[in-house]
Each structure stands twice: as C-alpha cells, then as structure tokens.
C-alpha cells in the first residue's frame, strides 16, 4: 500500500547560533533553535508545528509543540502532542510528556517521563497466562 506519511510543517523561523533571547517565543509551523532561550518556546496549538532544538541550543523554560526534535539541552518541562524525538545529545532536566517517543542511545532525561494519553491505553494481557 502507499506510504501516506503526514507532511511536516516547514521550518520558517530560526534563532541562530550565538543568539540569546529572553522571553516567551510563540510560533506557528516550524522553528529551529540554534542559540539560547531564557523563557518558554510554545507552538500555536491550533496548527501543525515542528520545533527543532539543535545540538548547540539551550532552552531554559517550557517547550511545547506537536513534533519536537531535541539534540541540545532543555531545562524545563517538555510536551510533544504528536511526536518527541530525542537525538543522541539531548539533555532534558524536567518532566516530559509525549504522544509518541523516539529516543536514541545517549539521550538523557532527568525528570518524569509520561505518555499524554496513558489512561486510554488498554491493560497488557500476557499471552502465556496460567489462567484457564
């Protein structure tokens, strides 16, 4: 069957390496952070969004978007409403909530890791149960 991969939003904004921003960043579609942010980085919840935090980036605050890719450092809570990708150099100090998680070897999380919809998931049943 045809592979119907969901199209990701374009990266339209960039905070470049060597740049520092203090305050909340609110964005639509895509944002790449290569610099340092002292404040929250939050996507518009009504539109598809992608946030990339590169290897040299550092965010001191809350991070929230549909698709979040982290290869840098986040000091604060992270929420990915669709997909969270943690690359090998990802460092998170804070609680993490996600719909789907992809975590590469080397990524570190110091905090609670919880799926967004854990209550909706069915309980696991073991196939080799002794119950008759």
Quick rundown:
The protein has no helices and 16 strands. The chain is mostly beta strands and 132 residues long.
Structure description:
With 132 residues, the protein is mainly β. The protein has one domain. Helix content is 0%, strand content 49%. The strands form 2 sheets. Strands 1, 3, 4, 6, 7, 9, 11, 13, 14 and 16 form a 10-stranded parallel β-sheet that branches. A 6-stranded parallel β-sheet has the order 2-5-8-10-12-15, with no helix packed on it. The N and C termini lie far apart (39 Å).
Produce the secondary structure layout:
Layout: E1 11-15, E2 20-22, E3 25-27, E4 29-33, E5 36-38, E6 41-43, E7 49-53, E8 58-60, E9 63-70, E10 73-75, E11 78-86, E12 91-93, E13 96-98, E14 101-103, E15 108-110, E16 113-115
Parallel strand pairs: 1-4, 2-5, 3-6, 4-7, 5-8, 6-9, 7-9, 8-10, 9-11, 10-12, 11-13, 11-14, 12-15, 13-16
Keywords for this entry:
globular, ten-stranded parallel sheet, 0% helix, six-stranded parallel sheet, 132 residues, mainly beta, single chain
Uncertain residue segments: none
Number of E strands: 16
Query: How many domains make up the coordinates?
Result: 1
Helix content: under 10%
- C-alpha end-to-end distance: 39 Å
Q: Characterize the biggest β-sheet.
A: 10 strands, parallel
From the spread of the alpha carbons, the general shape counts as globular
Order of helices and strands: EEEEEEEEEEEEEEEE
Average residue pLDDT: 89
Q: Count of DSSP helices? A: 0
> By helix and strand content, what is the structural category?
mainly beta
Seen as an oligomer or otherwise, the chain set is single chain
Computed Rg: 17 Å
Give the percentage of residues in beta strands: over 45%
